[in-house]
Amino acid sequence: MVTSPEFLVIIMFAGLVIGLSFGFPVPFVMLGISLIVGVLAGEGVGFFSMMVLRMFETMQNYILASIILFIYMGIMLERSGMGDKLFSSCHVLLGRLPGGLALAVLAVCTIMAASTGIMGAPVMIMGMVALPVLLKKGYDPRMSCGIVCAGGTLGILIPPSIMLVVYGPMAGLSVGKLFMGAFLPGLTLSVLYAVYIFVRCTINPELGPPLSLEERNLPFVKKASMALTSMGPPLLLIFSVLGTMFFGIAAPTEAAALGAFASLILTLLYRKLDWKAFKESAYATLRASSMILLIVAAAYIFTGTFMKVGGGELVQNFLLNLSVGRWGVMAIMCFSFFICGFFMEWPGILPILVPIFTPILKKLGFDPIWAAMAFCVCMQTSFLTPPMAPALFYLKGVAPKEVSFVSHICAGVVPFIVIQIIGLGLVLAFPQLTLWLPSVMIK
Length: 443
Prior knowledge:
Elements: H1 5-21, H2 26-40, H3 45-60, H4 65-80, H5 82-94, H6 100-116, H7 120-129, H8 131-136, H9 141-153, H10 162-171, H11 175-203, H12 213-216, H13 220-246, H14 252-269, H15 275-308, H16 311-320, H17 325-340, H18 346-364, H19 368-382, H20 390-398, H21 405-429, H22 432-440
Helix pairs in contact: 1-2, 2-15, 3-15, 4-14, 4-15, 5-6, 5-13, 6-7, 6-9, 6-11, 6-13, 7-9, 7-20, 9-20, 9-21, 10-18, 11-19, 11-21, 11-22, 13-14, 15-18, 16-18, 17-18, 17-19, 19-21
């Protein structure tokens, strides 16, 4: 049975939306639809050979091995208690400023994003550790919830982002260059969040009052000691991962192994490493990495099926023939990433959209690393935007009982969504924000 490419493409995406809407696991939806479309297309043995080859491609991809190592690094750092120590230190150092505690939360989220590469850990740790303190000190609940969610989503953008590890092989790009390209956009968003909090709390101090004189009046030596012991180890860890890649000392997978080992040592130094923690971290890594790699493999097969039935050429011709210009097509691609973020998380989005859009970017003359950052900021924004935003549900799961999901968490992220859009505009308007660091990397 052979049908038109248009019909098969409609079947694939309609099936994907229906399957996900009914709550079926993402990889099984993708595999099931691929199987059905393969039969409808009459591919037979050739289709099954493609499925097997695509699965082996995932298993043999050396770069994807760094996913396991980065996940282990993040989980081990979560267990080390690093977030608690960082917040206590930033609490004292920034507490004298208007909105100082919220700025401390943002600083911790930024450092943890550059240490773990995942979104859930910063949101949940700050939700458990910092949010009760913010509420107790009289901070506005909406602003407090908003900064925890927004700061936590930096984990999927600021390197070593696991999302970028998956993006690189999909687009044929260097993961190291993607890491360097994401560094300044991620820091720019963090700075924009900080400026918003500082200005708003300066205008209306009741939203984020500074600490009392007694709480912040610690000796300089004690403050310096707290800063050194809490910030020194994670900053050293960040340099061990990003610095080795920037200076051409290590490839991403080697840097991930170094970071995983360093996180183990850091947990040992914090006296949180025992056999139970080691075993549970290994099991958690196995579960998380298996889930991500299974989705990636299934998405590889889904995309292979899409290309095999002519869907890639169909989408390319459609977009390139639109009378909206190259920037209009770019806007459509960015919006596609944003909308897909409402239905699935990034492990399912990247393998579907990146192989389809990458050839279009080349034909339109856009730099693929710059475009990757624009797409990633769009996904980050969707993960923060109600009603499907995962960051909001992470926080709701650990927030105090008095925190309302709608009036506090959902309302609290609205200003930060606006800031995200401003950040996206800066990435699009100033390509060097993304391209400068990759251009000066030592190869």
